[in-house]
Write the structure tokens for this entry.
Amino acid sequence: MKVLDVPQTGKLGLTVTWPGRNGLIRRAFVIPANPRSIAQLTVRSRLQTTAASWRQLTDLQQNAWTALAAQHQSRSTLGQSGPLTGLQLFTKINCSLLTIGGSPVSDPPAYPTFALLPITSLAITNAAGVIALNLTTTDSPPDGTMLWGCAPQSPGTRRPVSWRYLGTLDSPVNNKIDVTTAYTTEFGVPAVDDRVFVKCNQNLNGWQDVPLLFNSRVPAAT
């Protein structure tokens, strides 16, 4: 339910509070389900392995990560953020690399210069009931460009929720990148008039840029 209170987030006694679109929301605290899915266990394993690797670094390497981390802020929560720790940046970069099939690094990579991704839209076609999802492009995106999606939404929805990583983008063919299999393997085939959301971002040496967000509605069959 919506409540009037000072800005806050997280567990408070037997309740949980978080900021919603129109104010604070509070509900009873319940222990969340732990499905132990393959994706969930993979992420946990990466975090565990990366944290253990931090302890194997030399003091010089840890100091280098700490110095670089001090130049980067955490994500803002309730209007507050602070510099990352060396361990946080080390974990962030290496988990990002492992996600796209890269190799972990012991020394901190310099922050890259990101060019604008050459992706312009999400185009959905429905040829006699066969639905295809394609990203239109003006050039080839960099290797390791990440694709994310969320489950099909109603046509009136404009705020995507529960993003999932779907893989990296292939090279375009005739200025299109087919993402049908990547999307439908995770979420199934969307129905006519469903709104489909995807987003793409670059992953250069473990650093990720701000994603480009696209959406489109599934047309009727032609």
Observations:
- The chain has a mean pLDDT of 93.
- The chain has three domains: 1-32, 38-99, 119-217.
